[in-house]
Amino acid sequence: MKQLKICVERAVRPLRANNRRKDRMREELLAHLQELYHEELARLIDPSAALDQAMRRFGDPAELRRELQDSVPLLERWLFVPVGPRSFQRFERRLSRPGENESALRFALRQTGWSALWMGILCLMFAILYLSAVLGLSRPVRPARETIPVVIASTTLTLLFTLLLPLLTCGMHGAMQERRERRRSAMKIVAYGLLGAVSVFAIGLGCGVLLSKQLQFGSQWLWGLTAVTVLTPLFSAFVARVWVSEARRYRDWESLEIDQ
Amino acid sequence: MRRIDGDVLRGHLETMVLSVLERSDAHGFEILRRLEAMGCGALRLKEGTLYPALYRLEKAGSVRAAWEENPGGRRGPRRRVYRITRKGLRQLIRARQTWRQFVSVVGGIVETTA
Questions:
Q1: What is the pTM assigned to this prediction?
Q2: Of A31, A58, A64, the CB nearest to B77
């Protein structure tokens, strides 16, 4: 049945459309092609001849691709136009996926490194804006003592999630593998969740201490922080679960060699 | 009977699909089988090209689709069952009127012998 999947993938993969739409097309076209194959197999008996005949009746994937592309809404087509040269697209693809034999930790650190770079650029821009506001405006601006802790806390939180999510995702992948792997992966998931919760609590507490005058902050703040701390592992696990399910769905299709 | 292929059918495929769906809901494979049966085997269509037509109709709101819920023990990828909407029915009525006018006008010209 791999040949049938390749036939479908030749028509669908190059489309400029969102993954959900492509996935729907893949499943529906494959269902049709499989029925064609079974019909031909019942008639011809020979599987190889049935395969050829089914693909012939289905039509040329390149022609089908053009027609499928026309059925995608114009805005979506425009949104999914590949940006930049092929080398940039390859770079972007390599950035967002773990390499072959790359460990989860290395992949997570790589992603965190890139995020840190972008966050650094954003922080620099923010600092320039802040300084120009301080120097150029006559009216008083929010003091740095209040602003900087918030910037540092939000940057650290973002980096923390960038690190945690790939680790959780890889842990979940592992949990769905062999029985032997499951226990270790489950422990990893719990450990990453706890690490996330403790880090969020520490960052929130630090931020609260820096922001509060005379180191006093109300019980309301602590309750809020505790709620966020409890929700952090749940939220991270939910996002990682969505990633795992998407990755599982597309991995089979994307691994197909469709070059003719 | 001489076969009618994709190029001739292309402009009328959406109307034919709506016409099939007017009778009852169906998935893509079933739509094609019904088209073949109604065309007495004279229609020759690359089967994949049905789906862009269905997606265009869906985008226009003329049909609605849902994944098949009870495939009757069928294994493998799911199929989507298409249903004609009120908008689709109105589109079908208009397409039939246009078709009759086309046949009447063009048929009158083409069939006139010298």
A1: 0.68
A2: A31
Smallest CA-to-CA distance from A168 within A179, A160, A156 is with: A160
Terminal-residue alpha carbon distance, chain B: 26
Chain B residue numbers touching A72 (CB-CB < 8 A): 55
Domains and CATH numbers, chain B: 6-110 (1.10.10.10)
- Contact between chains at B49 and A64 (C-beta distance less than 8 A): yes
> B49 contacts in A (CB within 8 Å)?
59, 63-64, 67
User: Residue type at A169?
Assistant: T
DSSP element (H, E) containing B67: strand B63-67
Q: Give backbone dihedrals phi and psi of B60, rounded to 5 degrees, phi first.
A: -80, -5
**How many CA atoms lie less than 13 Å away from B86 in the CB half-sphere?**
0
ipTM at complex level: 0.86
Q: Rounded to a whole number, what is the distance in Å from the CA of A28 to chain B's nearest CA? A: 5
pLDDT in tens, B50-100: 999 999 999 999 999 999 876 666 677 889 999 999 999 999 999 999 888
- What are the C-alpha distances in Å from B34 to residues A39, A147, B21, B111? 15, 68, 10, 30
Count the Cβ atoms, other than its own, within 10 Å of residue B27. Answer: 21
Q: Which member of A32, A34, A71 has the closest CB to residue B52? A: A71
Cα–Cα nearest to B83, from B37, B33, B25: B25
Partners of B27 in beta bridges: B81
Task: Using CB atoms, pick whichever of A27, A71, A73 lies closest to residue B77.
Answer: A27
CB contact under 8 A, A57 and B76: no
What is the Rg, in whole angstroms, of the alpha carbon atoms belonging to chain A?
A: 25
B12 to chain A, minimum CA–CA distance in Å? 15
